[in-house]
Amino acid sequence: MKLLIVGIGDCGCRLAGEFAELDRMARAKRGASIVTRAYAVNNDKAGLAALTKAGHRTLSPVLIRGPLESKDKSTEAGARLVRQESDRVMTAMRLGGFFDADAFLLVAGSGGSLGSGGVPVIAQLLKEHYVDKPVYALIILPFETEASEAQYVHNTAICLKSTDKVADAVILVDNGGVGVWEEITPAENLDGVNKGIVFPFYDLLCAGEVVGPKYSGAKVLDAGDIVQTLAGWTAIGVGKTKFSTSILPWRNTQDFREKGSETLRAVEAMNLALIRLSIDCKLENAGKALYLLSVPSKKANVDMVSVLGNRLRELAENAEIRDGSFYGAKDSAQVTVIASQLVYVDRIKSYYHRAAELARTPKADEKTKEKKRTRRAQKPD
Questions:
Q1: Would you state the pLDDT for residue 352?
Q2: Could you please report the per-residue DSSP string of 132-189?
Q3: Are strands 332-342 and 286-294 parallel, antiparallel or unpaired?
Q4: Same domain, 51 and 157
């Protein structure tokens, strides 16, 4: 699957650069193109210049004129600025890889102003101009240290609600420490966190783009399967386990014990992917799900796909499930899992509830102050 990436705001621009790097890796290692173009939309000239110096082949900066007012860091202010500059943004992107892209992916952090406000605005513009292509959003929730701040809570709630109305799917990432294939990246390591957010897309995008018998698995998972799966609130995760290396190089065949062990490794990789989903969710609440198995050709067997399918159907019993496999891994089993069309996500409900409480608090405080002023006015001198 080929994506056109639009990163908005500081967080979104950094992740757009990571997607460009992911495309470079896919071209170098697998001969596949997975990002037609990546755009970094921001009003921070210095930040865009730093991304440009990184030398990302497919990344193009888009500078928005007119800085945000220093006192207004709300999502609404960011949306106003992006709406004012929408012609500049769309004109800058018009020469990109629209026609080769299978879908658009907008990327932003939900707690800031420009990114959280800009995503729904640009999503609406893209849907109006390119009605035949799905528009997805990758939304990064605030760190735990930020989640208690009123402005972050307000921005996140408005961003989620507005984006859900216009995007075909919203992929959520809980920024409290993102799981990657070997370890959990601490929040303090920002570069590691960004790579961990983007990496789960690598096999998913490559699977339908790599060509030749070298990569051909039992069943190809292409752009159509992904488009049919992604809908509404979505989580993505990846897990990896290494196969044991035989010390007997002259043995070219596997007995049933070895095949069983390798199938178990694939199941462990799926379990890791489920543990490290980008947002905490209940799989029984998913309407759609997908898994992709990546293994070396010599380690693949029919039981792997069957066992993984049964495992996911057991957990996501109400979901319509799609699957695929390809020979992309070298010495390990790597499984990518998507849970989509989630009908209930605790983290979203929490932000909505807290934002509503914060909105009511100032009104209650004002009523209390008004009552006190009235009592003082009514007291005799």
A1: 92
A2: TS-EEEEEEPPPTTTTTSHHHHHHHHHHHHHHHHH-SEEEEE-TT--B-SSSBPPTT-
A3: antiparallel
A4: yes
Asked if 275 and 135 sit in the same domain, the reply is no
Beta-bridged to residue 289, according to DSSP, are 321, 339
Tell whether 76 is covered by a domain: yes
Two structure tokens written together for 310: 């049964």
Residue 159 has pLDDT above 90, yes or no: yes
The answer to whether residue 159 sits within a structural domain is: yes
Average pLDDT, the chain: 84
Q: What is the mean pLDDT of residues 50-75?
A: 74
Q: What is the Cα–Cα distance from 209 to 31, expressed in whole angstroms?
A: 9
Residue 233: closest CA among 173, 186, 169, 178: 169
Q: Name the burial class of residue 211, with classes exposed (0-12), middle (13-18) and buried (19+) by CB atoms within 10 angstroms of its CB.
A: exposed
| Least confident stretch, 18-22, 141-145, 311-315, 376-380 | 376-380
Per the domain annotation, does 379 fall within a domain? no
CATH of the domain at 295: 3.30.1330.20
Residue 280 structural domain: 231-342
More confident residue, 260 or 376: 260
Residue 365 in any domain: the answer is no
The domain total for the chain is 2
- Give percent of the chain with pLDDT exceeding 90: 52
Q: What is the pLDDT of residue 71?
A: 66
CA distances from 319 to 55, 333, 338, 343, 347 (A): 42, 24, 11, 11, 21
Backbone angles phi and psi of 36, in degrees to 5: -75, -35
> How far apart, in whole angstroms, are the C-alpha atoms of residue 343 and residue 194?
27
